[in-house]
Amino acid sequence: MSSEKKRVQFRAPHRLVDRTDALAAVLGEDRTDILLTALREYLQEATHDDALTQEIAAAYYDNEITFEQLKALVGAEEAANLRVLKQQLDEDFIDEVADA
Amino acid sequence: MSPLVADASALVSLGVVATDDPDPLGICLAQYEVVVPTVVIEELREIASYDDTHGRAASTVLDRTDALETRSVNLDAEFPLDDGENAAVKLANELDVALLLCDEFNQLGLIHASLADTRLVTTPTLLSILVRTEQLSASDARLLLDEISDARSWDANSYVQRARSLLSES
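The joint structure predicted for all components is written out below.
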């Protein structure tokens, strides 16, 4: 994974930012460290959630995300399974097998 | 008839609806020369020992083994799949069959990558093919898929949901 940083801007409720800063002060880290840890842990957990994996798969079947994005979310092995399943839905593939 | 190798997972799926009319297992056995590794038959016997939907489905398939050809396969023990899938992949490659029928959705990437000239199909896709070749009506296929889906707990699976909508369009 690239370690190059991308600048992201977003608005968050005051209370959430205050709590983030408070935890940062306790841990001797900065706000960004806390947010990155929170985001990394959320993504890790979320992509191990079956229901969310199915949402991700659906977005891939509907061409809302690319195979590369799929792989970044669910890992190479699961992405390979979903690629085969997407092919199973392809009308041309079904025609080809039906005609064989 | 083109040859087709089937794995236990898909045979159980078809077995769930094999007592229905129309019966997609019967259609499949009439349409394809179905070849099954002996280890898959052993897996079906094991599944059939349970008194539940899967067990009854496996028994239904075992009752029709006369219509199947069974072959023993030397397993490649290093291969990271369970014995049935491993044998099915090996047999499909050895016999150079047109189709491998398998419903192990979580292993499909690896199975697909291990096949030489054989096409991989799942049961929902097989139902679409049977609709395309006019062996099943789209509405019958949809009902059959719903029934299989219930038995296999596929309801939350996006692939199965898409496969179902594919059937309603045809």
